[in-house]
From TrEMBL:
It comes from the Bacteria. Pfam families: PBP_dimer, Transpeptidase. GO terms for cellular component: plasma membrane. It comes from Yoonia maricola. Keywords: Carboxypeptidase, Cell cycle, Cell division, Hydrolase, Membrane, Protease, Transmembrane, Transmembrane helix. This is Cell division protein FtsI (Penicillin-binding protein 3). SUPFAM superfamilies: beta-lactamase/transpeptidase-like, Penicillin binding protein dimerisation domain. InterPro entries: Beta-lactam/transpept (IPR050515), Beta-lactam/transpept-like (IPR012338), PBP_dimer (IPR005311), PBP_dimer_sf (IPR036138), PCN-bd_Tpept (IPR001460). The lineage of its organism: Bacteria, Pseudomonadati, Pseudomonadota, Alphaproteobacteria, Rhodobacterales. It is found in: Membrane.
Length: 594
């Protein structure tokens, strides 16, 4: 770039000829040069300010547009995304109502093989078969020597097994990090928890998914990273659950039953404190589903939820309570019990001859089929069905388990008059023990509907009214009399004022229709304390037989009632219920001197 000289020779010579100072010419040219440089720098600064202003304008415009878009959009939780590894292995814990662990995760390893990297496949197969006895050495060697590039050996291994495999020294045997689902209490609450397995798998991680029970029902919650590992809290009490399982297993053995179930429920909240189904299983090693045979005999079958049975005379209190609510009878109304009661070709009989009539209370205490059927005839089929529907007996339970919808009650195809009579004493309608527990809780807690739940509740949700408080109290008094002087005399537990109703129903034949003569479902539905109800307990035994006498005894009074009484005796103190002991009268004391 050429620049104008500060002292141009032509002007200098002219200035000297005129006698002028040549330095003035230099000063003038220098001033012009500085002014030009200043103009150039000012233009450059103005250009930069313009570009910066445009940049700020665009930025604020984008921010404004984004703010407008957010303001007009529907709010939603952000979803976390993992780059590179789409498998989410973390799974939240499951705890009981007191915060004790029911299910958790354990860091472990998986074992896989790259057969092409093995130096001595035969030696590796031999050593692996010794470490894992369930593996076949010949099959392993066949896989190692084949064309496969990748092979799972074990999905999860213990630290001891990992060290043993490491000692083999084969470069083709590799380990991957993994989480496994651990149930530290073994088979306790197995049917409630259900179990978990692996979904999508990779060498770096594996997806743990629920396969049954609450693990599957709440699978999305347990796997959701947005919960930040918050545990799922159930209504179960681990200590009470363990005690109930121990007592029920002993009772099932003593009574020679093929299966048993129990449900312990809070009458005010509907929370299930304990739910047992026997035989059970260990969810750490969940068995396979039976391919053949009766699925109800499988240890995976949840009798409390999936088992629907004709539960027998435990239904009589519903009939009596409805009749009292309608004003058709009261506790002292005399009911005709002259038998047999004939309807067409059907004959309704009582277990014993109770005479020509009984009071409404004694119909429950003596468990009269004829008396209950006559009360049901006064109610009518339409009103009976509506009442049972209000108690939840016509639909599957809303329990938070994937198995709950399968426990749908079996209803008569035509709710005829004979159906009305038989259903009044527990035949002709099949329901689950959870249905029965919710029905008893709704009837006896003061008469308001409760829904069964496996989730911890901190407050009572008042449901619709089923019967009045007076009818509810009268029903509890009747059930108390059943234990004091009726068919459940073995159910008395000192200090806890137990009330309840027995039910013995013949089992229907699997094929050919009709009922077995020597196979029954025996049930005891109980509430305690009867004067201030807190809990409902249902105990059901499948095909029990008490054989201490000359002849087998299968009725609930001899089988289910003693088991339920022992369960109350064991669990009531764990529930914080103090026994009410009658204080003896003071004895007069006479002071004497030596």
């Amino acid at each position: 770039m050429s620049r104008a000289p500060l002292r141009p020779l032509a002007r200098i010579l002219k200035a000297r000829a005129r006698g002028e100072n040549p330095d003035a010419i230099e000063a003038e040219n220098r001033a012009r040069r500085h002014e030009a440089m200043a103009d150039k720098q000012r233009q450059r600064a103005e250009g930069r300010l313009l570009v910066l202003g445009l940049a700020f304008f665009c930025a604020f415009g984008l921010i404004g547009m984004r703010m407008g878009a957010l303001a007009s959009s529907v709010p939603e939780e952000p979803s976390a995304s993992a780059v590179g590894n789409p498998i989410i292995g973390q799974r939240s814990d499951i705890i009981d109502r007191n915060g004790r662990i029911l299910a958790t995760n354990l860091a472990t390893h998986s074992l896989y093989a790259h057969p092409r990297d093995m130096i001595d496949p035969a030696y590796a197969a031999k050593e692996l078969a010794e470490i894992f006895p369930e593996l076949d050495e010949a099959e392993l060697l066949k896989d190692f020597e084949g064309d496969r590039r990748f092979l799972w050996v074990r999905r999860q291994i213990s630290p001891e097994q990992m060290q043993a495999v490491h000692d083999i020294g084969s470069p083709g045997l590799l380990f991957g990090p993994r989480e496994m689902r651990l149930y530290p209490n073994g088979p306790i609450a197995a049917h409630v928890l259900g179990g978990a397995s692996y979904g999508r798998e990779g060498v770096a991680s594996a997806e743990v998914i629920g396969v049954a029970g609450v693990e599957r029902q709440f699978d999305s919650y347990l796997r959701d990273p947005a919960n930040e590992g918050a545990p799922l809290q159930l209504s179960l009490d681990l200590t009470v659950q363990a005690a109930a399982e121990q007592v029920l297993a002993g009772g099932m053995s003593i009574m020679n039953a093929k299966g048993a179930t129990s449900v312990l429920m809070d009458v005010h909240t509907g929370e299930i404190i304990s739910m047992v189904s026997l035989p059970d299983f260990d969810p750490n090693n969940r068995p396979r589903v039976q391919a053949t045979g009766d699925q109800s005999d499988s240890p995976l079958f949840n009798r409390a939820v999936q088992g629907v049975y004709e539960l027998g005379s435990v239904f009589k209190i519903f009939t009596t309570a409805q009749a009292m609510e309608l004003g058709l009878v009261n506790a002292n109304t005399m009911i005709d019990t002259q038998g047999p009661l004939t309807w067409g070709r059907f004959r309704i009989r009582d277990f014993r001859n109770y005479g020509p009539e009984l009071s409404t209370t004694d119909v429950i205490v003596k468990s009269s089929n004829i008396g209950t059927a006559r009360i049901a005839m006064q109610i009518g089929g339409e009103r009976q069905r509506a009442f049972l529907d209000s108690l939840g007996f016509l639909e599957p339970t809303p329990l938070e388990m994937v198995e709950a919808p399968t426990g749908k009650p079996l209803l008569p195809p035509n709710w005829s008059e004979i159906s009305t009579m038989t259903i009044s004493y527990g035949h002709g309608l099949s329901s689950s023990p959870v249905h029965l527990a919710a029905g008893y809780a709704s009837l006896l807690n003061g008469g308001t509907r409760v829904e069964p739940t496996l989730l911890r509740r901190d407050h009572v949700e008042q449901g619709p009214r089923i019967v009045s408080e007076a009818v509810s109290a009268r029903a509890r008094e009747m059930l108390r009399q059943v234990v004091v002087r009726g068919t459940a005399s073995f159910g008395e537990v000192p200090g806890y004022a137990v009330g309840g109703k027995t039910g013995t129903a013949d089992k229907p034949r699997a094929a050919g229709g009709g009922y077995y003569d020597d196979k029954v479902i025996s049930t005891f539905a109980t509430v305690f304390p009867a004067n201030d109800p807190q809990y409902v307990l249902i105990v059901t035994l499948d095909e029990p037989s008490e054989n201490s006498g000359d002849e087998p005894r299968r009725t609930a009074g001899w089988t289910a009632v003693p088991v339920a009484a022992e369960m109350i005796r064991r669990t009531a103190p764990l529930l914080g219920l103090r026994p009410q002991v009658d204080t003896p009268q003071q004895v007069g004391v006479t002071l004497t001197a030596n």
